Amino acid sequence: MALKIAVIGTGKVNRDNYIPYLASQSDIELGYYNRTHSTAPQVAEQFGGTVFSSLDEVAQWDPTAALILTSETIRYEIGMQLIGSGIRKVFFEKPLVAVNGQAHVTEDDFYKGKAMLDLARAKGCETAMVFNYRFFEQTLAARQIAAERNFGQVINVAGLVHYACWSHCIDLIQHFAGSIEEITALSGAKSYGASAVGIEAPDVVAALRMKNRATGTLIGTAGMKWQHPLYELIFTFENGRIHMRDLDGTLEILDGATQLHEVRSIARHTARWDQYRDSFTKALSAYLDSLRNEQAPPVPGRAGLEELQVEAALKRSIAEKRPVLVQQEFPI
Asked: What distance in Å separates the CA atoms of residue 313 and residue 323, rounded to the nearest whole number?
């Protein structure tokens, strides 16, 4: 059975990382919509597929799934229209909603995301998220090692994260350690910028307590140099410790059952951006397989709302200068 995939947004990241893989699949028929109408025909000419001039036309095409890959600033608007029109399955880029950009998520973004997923439930629309950092080789290896060696539960986590990777790393923390229950956060007095990605914002530092009683600290910044690792995460388990560093960085394993400090490195001919592209392929492949097999998506849309839930709690803690009980104050 052929899959009809509507690609909403045909910008550079999508042309480089999503569309080539989709076009390589023999059982996929592609359709495109982009607000800047000149770009979608160029993509269709290169990769094949149908161009639509409106979201109503996309809905009338009745795709198997719509991939909402637009800027995060208009994702809510696009998502509400497509879900409201009866689209059966929707796949979102990250973050789920960020009207002012990914470095400036607000409480209102959480409420918009919740309203969108509530509408999806009411309409019988299945939602999914990309969160492709879950599919990096080093992430997959870390999960496998922790499980196979019986590392047990995470007891604490420490993170240093560039805002370009912010929502992904919040997702990874909850992917490894479970839901965040309480947050106390502070904002820096000075903004830092990254011209390479157009982000400027003050640093954020947060103390975390997880639902399983693990604790953690998290720093978000746009001040790190682009050529350096863009995130570092340390997970301490009951029986071991794992250090993760960027897309292609080394993975360090400290196993409580041994006297070894192990370092797992990807071959040096494989660059950061090779890992970046490959993670999209893996995330897309897993999602397409779920469509083919009529199974639940590997990363549900709820994961995107849970990430926004954490960001909303961070902002409230900073504004009100107090700890925030995440699940109570921002229930899903």
From this structure: 9
* pLDDT higher than threshold 90 for residue 226: no
For the chain, the structural domain boundaries read 3-132+278-301, 133-269
**Fold (topology level) of 133-269:** Dihydrodipicolinate Reductase; domain 2 (3.30.360)
- Asked whether 108 and 318 are in contact (CB, 8 A), the reply is no
For 139, the 3-state DSSP assignment is helix
Residue 60's contacts (CB-CB under 8 Å, 6 or more residues apart) are none
Q: Which residue has the higher pLDDT, 129 or 164?
A: 129
pLDDT, tens only, 56-68:
999 999 999 999 9
The answer to whether 107 and 315 have CB atoms below 8 angstroms apart is: yes
Rounded to 5 degrees, φ, ψ at 274 are -65, -45
Q: Which has the closest alpha carbon to 119: 80, 73, 148, 152?
A: 80
* Domain 3-132+278-301 CATH (choose: 1.25.40.10, 2.60.40.10, 3.40.50.720, 3.40.50.2300): 3.40.50.720
> Which helix (H) or strand (E) segment is 213 a member of?
none
